[in-house]
């Protein structure tokens, strides 16, 4: 199914006027954008779906170190994208006004991503499974709690370290009216499920824990 252009989230980098429909991503609308939108509207290396499919068919791009299946693949927050012919690498990020944007990164950053922990389970033999916000499930010995983040390595397919939700941690707001804001956590109220975040301009804002992700 397609998505009506007027139903597109405000975080997507697409114009409100244009064709009636846009491609629907393969996962949640609010956590990322379809690969077609990234290639056409952000990178501007294709003009339409046919050209995007050709780029994918020719294996000219990598999404999180893998060849994507099709143009509907979701590119989620902090996912990485490689343009093989151009030898350029990017990460999907949020601008200050809450719009998805691409930031060029070095090759050394390509295989790593901070992801929020949505849930955790103890399996047989006391193995711990971390269920991540981007849909991944990984087994890890790292001590981490729900709402913390983990730094995962795509190449080695493992969690490298825990990024705890605590005072002095850096975080990004990815939802709500403060979407795109980033700063230092100055206090955590687990009872009210709110954190106070001090932004770059020394502004202090209160944000729901479910709307932030710890990045370091």
Fold topology:
Elements: E1 3-4, E2 21-22, E3 32-34, H1 35-42, H2 49-57, E4 61-63, E5 74-76, E6 80-83, E7 88-94, E8 100-105, E9 112-122, E10 128-132, E11 137-139, E12 149-153, E13 158-163, E14 170-173, E15 182-189, E16 194-199, E17 204-208, E18 212-214
Antiparallel strand pairs: 1-2, 3-5, 4-6, 6-7, 7-8, 9-10, 9-12, 10-11, 12-13, 14-15, 14-18, 15-16, 16-17
Describe this structure in words.
The protein is mostly beta strands and 216 residues long. The chain folds into 3 domains: 3-109, Structural Genomics Hypothetical 15.5 Kd Protein In mrcA-pckA Intergenic Region, Chain A; 112-163, Ribosomal protein S4, central domain (OB fold (Dihydrolipoamide Acetyltransferase, E2P), Beta Barrel); 170-214, Roll (SH3 type barrels). It contains 2 helices and 18 strands. The strands form 5 sheets. The protein has a 5-stranded antiparallel sheet with strand order 11-10-9-12-13, with no helix packed on it. The N and C termini lie far apart (37 Å). The model has no long low-confidence stretch (mean pLDDT 85).
């Amino acid at each position: 199914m397609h998505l009506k252009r007027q139903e597109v989230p405000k975080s997507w980098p697409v114009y409100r006027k244009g064709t009636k429909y846009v491609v629907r991503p393969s996962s949640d609308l609010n956590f990322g954008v379809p690969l077609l939108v990234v290639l056409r509207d952000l990178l501007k290396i294709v003009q339409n779906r046919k050209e995007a499919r050709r780029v994918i068919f020719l294996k000219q791009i990598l999404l999180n170190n893998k060849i994507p299946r099709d143009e509907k693949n979701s590119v989620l927050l902090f996912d990485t994208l490689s343009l093989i012919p151009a030898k350029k690498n990017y990460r999907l990020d949020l601008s200050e006004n809450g719009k998805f944007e691409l930031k060029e990164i070095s090759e050394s950053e390509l295989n790593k991503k901070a992801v929020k922990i949505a849930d955790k389970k103890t399996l047989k033999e006391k193995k711990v499974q971390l269920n991540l916000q981007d849909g991944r499930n990984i087994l890890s010995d790292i001590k981490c709690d729900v709402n913390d983040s983990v730094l995962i390595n795509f190449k080695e397919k493992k969690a490298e370290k825990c990024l705890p939700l605590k005072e002095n941690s850096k975080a990004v707001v990815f939802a709500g009216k403060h979407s795109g804001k980033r700063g230092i956590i100055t206090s955590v109220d687990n009872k009210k499920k709110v954190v106070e975040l001090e932004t770059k301009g020394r502004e202090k804002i209160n944000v729901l824990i479910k709307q932030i992700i710890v990045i370091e």
